[in-house]
Specification:
Number of helices: 13
Radius of gyration: 20 Å
Number of domains: 2
Distance between the termini: 52 Å
CATH class of the largest domain: Mainly Alpha
Shape: globular
Number of strands: 0
Helix content: over 70%
Strand content: under 5%
Order of helices and strands: HHHHHHHHHHHHH
């Protein structure tokens, strides 16, 4: 079990962003592209897991002071550093091989993701604000990978929305680090010293507002309406607003600390909201010719 935990399979959910270009293009029912993207998903997940192991290896002493991270396999001593690095090498080779077999351009983007996160693990994460943008850029590289594999061009709207959403998630993650620092009295991450709750709360509110505006502009864009042949996508804005409001409610009102990913895993309201957004968006996009939408 410790070896599986070392890979952080829960964080593989982030790599579902590879499917976003295909979903927004209305081609999610294409079996061939879905198969290729599934292989790309595992390639990306293997490489991402190798980065997680490198990061845990370097931070194992600091993680021992963390109330949650101290339970990680390397910090707790359940997995030896030597075995962890061996698994890391195997994952990196497996992911790179799959990526190269799928598409060389995808392999190059995946290599860029690995190098970017390697730099993050070796010190860039300690530079405030830059650490947030590096995390956000990782999600942009995910959708770029999905675009390459599925051969679906990326629109500027998708890139903007994914960038904004990932910045929002990264700020939420830093806020969680800061809350833990306040509660424990010890520094969990060097970059946290350059943040305070007022600044991060303000940034969360600003980025949330920009996300809503950008999403509305996307759904009402003449270019998008013409390409997707429907003007009804703006109906789904209600779920975007509800999801953002719920997340802000959790961290501001209930004061429930946790990264956006962990909160999503345990909050039923957010899960249902996300599901309703997916179902409503897919229904409008894939069944726009149904009598109900005429």
């Amino acid at each position: 079990m410790a070896y599986l935990t070392l890979l952080r399979p829960k964080d593989w959910a982030k790599n579902l962003f590879l499917f976003i270009p295909l979903f927004f293009a209305g081609d999610l029912l294409d079996a061939v592209k879905l198969t290729l993207l599934s292989l790309g998903f595992f390639a990306f997940s293997f490489v991402a897991s190798s980065i997680y192991i490198i990061n845990d290896y370097r931070d194992r002493e600091e993680d021992k002071k963390h109330p949650v991270k101290c339970k990680r396999p390397l910090a707790s001593g359940e997995v030896s550093p030597k075995k962890a690095l061996t698994i890391c090498t195997m994952l990196l080779l497996a992911g790179s091989s799959i990526a190269w077999a799928l598409n060389r351009d995808f392999a190059i983007v995946l290599a860029a993701y690995f190098l970017l996160n390697l730099g993050y693990s070796f010190g860039l994460k300690n530079i405030s604000i830059l650490d947030i943008f590096i995390l956000a850029l990782g999600f942009v590289l995910r959708i770029k990978s999905g675009s390459i594999i599925s051969q679906v061009p990326l629109s500027e709207w998708i890139i903007i929305m994914v960038l904004l959403l990932s910045i929002f998630m990264a700020i939420g993650k830093r806020r969680d680090d800061l809350i833990l620092k306040i509660r424990s009295g010890s520094d969990m991450r060097k970059s946290v010293k350059s943040y305070n709750l007022e600044f991060l709360n303000t940034m969360l509110a600003i980025v949330a507002a920009v996300i809503i505006v950008a999403y509305l502009m996307y759904t009402l864009s003449p270019e998008v309406i013409t390409r997707l042949q429907t003007y009804r996508l703006y109906y789904t804005t209600i779920f975007v607003i509800a999801g953002l409001m719920r997340y802000l409610q959790i961290i501001y009102v209930t004061a429930d600390a946790g990264s956006p990913t962990n909160i999503l895993y345990k909050d039923r309201f957010l899960q249902i909201t996300l599901l309703l957004w997916i179902v409503s968006f897919a229904s409008i996009l894939y069944f726009k010719d149904a009598p109900f939408f005429k």
